[in-house]
Amino acid sequence: MEKQLRETAKKLLQEGTVQVVIGYGRVETGGIGAIFVTNPDNADNLVWNQECSQNLVTYLTRKEIRKLGKAAIVVKACDARAVVVLKNESQLENNDVVVIGVACPGILNHRGSGDPVLQARCETCTERLPKNVDFVIGDESVNLPPLSVEQRSRKGNYAKLAKLMAMTQEERFRFWKDEFSRCIRCYACRQSCPLCYCNQCVVDKNRPVRIDTSATLKGNFAWNILRAFHLAGRCIGCGACSEACPAGIELDLLNLTLSQVSELEFHHFSGQEPGTAPLIGTYSEGDKEDFIQ
Amino acid sequence: MALENNTDNHFEPKIIAFVCNWCTYLGADLAGTNRLEYPANIRIIRLPCTGRIDFNLIVKAFEVGADAVLVSGCHPGDCHYTAGNYHARRRWILFRELLNTLGIDTRRIHFSWISAAEGAKFQKFVTKIVEDTRALGPYTDYKQLMIDN
Hints:
The complex is a heterodimer of chains A (293) and B (149).
Chain A: H1 2-14, E1 20-26, E2 32-37, H2 63-66, E3 71-75, H3 77-88, E4 97-102, E5 108-109, E6 117-118, H4 120-123, E7 135-137, H5 149-152, H6 156-166, H7 169-180, H8 188-192, H9 217-229, H10 240-244, H11 251-266
Helix pairs in contact in A: 6-11
Chain B: E1 15-20, H1 24-33, E2 42-47, H2 55-63, E3 68-73, H3 84-102, E4 109-113, H4 119-136, H5 140-147
Parallel strand pairs in B: 1-2, 1-3, 3-4
């Protein structure tokens, strides 16, 4: 698979279809990170294995990367959904980018001690062959039989969320207070997110100051509410935010709860279908209003 | 504009109401011109449309010490801008769930449709949420966040 990936990248660069290939490779720190291949001879530096955790799609919208020219990007099934959302939200044209999808057996978590285990988000992922991509590397053998909602709720992040929701409201508030008290406001969650692409984030605007920028509980709550809600109906569940968080805050649970409502109330699955309208930004006269007096 | 609660033991709820210019604000106005009395615990903030009500405003209201928040606008189909309230409704469906997950007390966030002709409904509804909030007591959870740092 890795060989096929390198050949595809080399060919794209040699033919001049793209000027840069964004993929995974060994980085100076020794781990796997993003590499930007501009010379076809370096295509052999590309790597694909179960350590390739980062969602590279976040680079597609960055100015510095756009300057490099037309890009090809290596994506997993979850990352591919981010490309679809970017296109749906008019952030990318269809021919702005060549998408190379790799079949993903699930990403391993190397953070803890002991043998690496499958990441929580990968436990409930069954469609592991990327869709809506230009090249597919690997085959359907990575796909798993779909889980029912009930089965899913017992695994991975869904199980964590179910456990959280089983607590009382006060317990949940204490849980998040504890989590957010560790937030240092580095905005790694924002930077790693492929869908947080605003030129100027509302938290960086200072006239007026809408969100306290110091790392106090007040500001941390406001910021994390804002970050999660700006991804409502958009988050594709790649877990990049939690992965990037140096404080280990389980940010993806907040996104997951919103994804669950999107799914249950609106049958909206972000990034599954090209050409769908954003969830917030459209409406239906039949939306529920049992909470409105 | 910190909203300090009274220092003696008597608790008076502070409720911030975000209302739309075209329906609920006029409903409140009608309640006034009809001399319908309702508790003075409510602070009305007039915005062009419920669709304009940024969720940050609700967070901000709690930050400055609100014990409850009311969001109110035109009935479905009555929006001055055709669909602002439909957009708002969808947003609140999602936002309420996020707040619930965060453990923020959703009993303290009220939504209603009150038209320009419903002065009486405004009076009744405001009276009800003031009484409900009084029963719940001050919203110390969120206020504590401002102190804990």
